[in-house]
Each structure stands twice: as structure tokens, then as C-alpha cells.
Amino acid sequence: MILKYSSYVLVGIVAGAINSVAGGGTILAFPLLIFFGMAAISANATTTVPLVIGQFSSALGYKKYIKKIPLGYFLLLIPVIIGTFLGAYLLTRTNDNIFMFISPFLILFAIIVFSYQPYIVARIYGSVYSKNIKYYPPIWLYLVIFILSIYGGYYGGGFGLTLLALLSITALKNIHTMNGLKNILATIEALVSVVVLFNSGLIDWKIGLVLGFGALLGGYFGSKFAQNLSLKYLRFVIIIIGLFTAIYFMGITNHMIFGNIFKI
Known about the structure:
Layout: H1 2-21, H2 26-35, H3 40-46, H4 48-61, H5 63-66, H6 77-92, H7 96-115, H8 117-126, H9 139-154, H10 159-167, H11 175-197, H12 205-224, H13 232-263
Helix pairs in contact: 1-2, 1-4, 1-12, 4-11, 4-12, 6-9, 6-11, 7-13, 9-10, 9-11, 10-11
């Protein structure tokens, strides 16, 4: 029991730190819950709790940069809220077997996005922006973030990193400013998910809050020391864990499909 909950706190810290820097912490937390015997759909729902706490604490760490964000960019909260609501509602209408079938593809998508993190961050640092301040994001971004938020409400792995990549091609000029806005949008995304899933019975609140305690620490200190963090080796470990998790789900899915065929 002590080992289990210590693992939750530790993974919460690491996941919170990863999410504060860019994103991808869910890829680490989700398999841990599966390993300790939680159903896939419940594990997915439970990870929304530490996401709220961790992303909020991360946003606090970027508060001096958040003050510099043009107010027009906060209108992106609208597609995030609507899209997340739809995605989380869809999750409540999905049974565990269907989610088990979909999970490998969701995890693989998150891994692909996470694998490209160095390129995305380099792209952000290397971008040349207009000197003219644009107070509103481009119109197309609302639609793209709406679609992304449906995915985020349903699963969420890779949501923050994809969001950061999208913000990198706006008029925002500083990676910490982008990260600050990303953490605010990701906090609201996770919060809406929790509200929708609150009475679904899918969330294990005790485990979610234990993970959240770790995410609180990791999110805040990760955002404070983001420029000093090296995720090179940790990224490799997370990708490997994610791949094994996807393979595990594929194995279960194949067993379910072929088992039913042979029964017929």
C-alpha cells in the first residue's frame, strides 16, 4: 500500500513537471493506474483530477508572463470549454470495452506528439514574429482548438503539447508566455472534464487527489525551473512506457476480438 501511494505521488510530481514545461504527463500516469489494476476508462477519467491541480499550479508559476498576454487570447477559453464538454460527455457514453479498443490509438497519437516535443520547442524558439502586437488569435485557431478540445475531454494525452504547438504559430513571442496561456487553457480543459465526469462514477477520487498532490508540487516547481529541466532521458522512458501500454491494450483487444470469433 505504501509503495503504491508513494508511486502515485512520485509519478504525480514527474507528470506535473512535464505538463508545466510542455505536456505529455498523462502518458506516464495513465499506465501506472492500469498497472495497479484500474479499468482503462476509469484510469483515464481519474487522471483529470491531477491535471486540474498540476496545470493550475503551473499557471501560478508563469503568472508574470500571463500578465503580458493580450486579453483577446483568453477568448480561446470558449472553444476549449465547449469542445472539452463534448469530449468528456462522449467518454461517459463509452463502455470500457470500447475504450480498451480505442486506447492504443489514443496513446500512440499522444506518443507521436510527445516524441516531436524537441522539434516543436525548437520551432517555437526559432520562429520570427511580426513586431506588431496582435491582440486576438487568428480565426482558424478557434476551430482547431475546438476539435483538439473534444479529443482533450475524451482522453487528453498530448493535449497540452499540441496546444503549445498551435500557440507557437500565433503572434505570441515568448515561450514562457505561450506556456502560461497553455497552462490556463489546459487547467480549464481538465476542470470542465472533472465537472462533466463528477457523477459518472468513473473517477477514483482518493487516487486522483494523491496524484494531484504530486502534480501540485511538480507543476509549480517545474514551471519555476522549466528552463533548467532536461527531459531528454525522461522523454525516452515515457515513450517506451507509452508504447508498451499501447501494445498491452492491442493484445487485450485482439484477445477480445478473436476470442469472440472462436466462440461463434
